[in-house]
Specification:
Oligomer: single chain
Helix content: 10-25%
Number of strands: 12
Largest sheet: 9 strands, mixed
Number of helices: 6
Strand content: 25-35%
Shape: globular
Length: about 230
């Protein structure tokens, strides 16, 4: 099956709606699906809940959707690089569900694996555990965390074949594999689209069964979040 769509806009046209929950890959600006985020902004859909490690930066990545006020709630682990995020959160305009970074990754992985909840030590005895079930195992205390699923997942791959098998490149892999499995519909943008059989099966990070739609974005901007150079 050829899952390739002619554009990011076409891939999202009939699957996004107001009030949905979306999961978006990336860590900082590394490995974010730039074209799909821009296309999501252009849909004008509102009251979105977005699951992502962070919310990009002002004016780029998910930061664009904050500027247009399309995001109602963020489920994130790090939000320190976005002044508009800070402003909306402190003014009560944006809801935020803070989640420890490893817990966020596991909540997404569990959702993709069909596991509804799990226990973790992380956050026990802190604000993270308020209102959640806790249990003791072998003398240690744990908090129960519910898995996360998304109506639509948006991920960024380095290479993809036409059936949706994905290969991520180095640190751009980050949250993308878990988010790909956690979506009821997953759309992947890739820098390179290859024919079926061109990818080494042992090198595939996400099998195509988890990916419903593909978008070719051969020249992403790949903006650097904090440029650091030697003297």
């Amino acid at each position: 099956m050829n899952k390739l769509y002619p554009s990011a806009a076409a891939a999202l046209a009939d699957i996004v709606a107001d009030g949905q929950t979306l999961a978006v890959g990336g860590f900082g600006l590394c490995g974010i699906p730039e074209a799909l985020i821009a296309a999501l902004r252009d849909t004008g859909k509102k009251n979105l809940t977005v699951i992502s490690n962070n919310a990009g930066v002002d004016g780029f990545g998910l930061g664009m959707l904050l500027t247009t006020r399309q995001i109602r709630k963020m489920i994130s682990s790090y939000v320190g690089e976005n002044k508009e995020f800070e402003r909306q959160f402190l003014s009560g305009e944006l809801e935020l569900e803070f989640t420890p970074q490893g817990t966020l990754a596991e909540k997404l992985r569990a959702g993709g694996a069909g596991i509804p909840a799990f226990y973790t030590k992380t956050g026990y005895g802190t604000l993270v555990a308020e209102g959640k079930e806790t249990r003791e195992f072998d003398g240690e205390h744990y908090v129960m965390e519910r898995a996360l699923r998304a109506d639509v997942s948006l991920v960024k791959a380095w290479k993809a074949d036409r059936t949706g098998n994905l290969v991520f490149r180095k640190t751009a892999r980050n949250f993308n594999p878990m988010i790909a499995t956690a979506g009821r519909v997953t759309v992947a943008e890739a820098e390179e689209i290859v024919d079926v059989g061109a990818l080494d099966p042992d090198q595939i990070h996400t099998p195509g069964i988890f990916v419903q739609r593909l978008v070719h974005n051969p020249n992403p901007e790949k903006r650097i979040e904090q440029r650091t150079v030697s003297p």
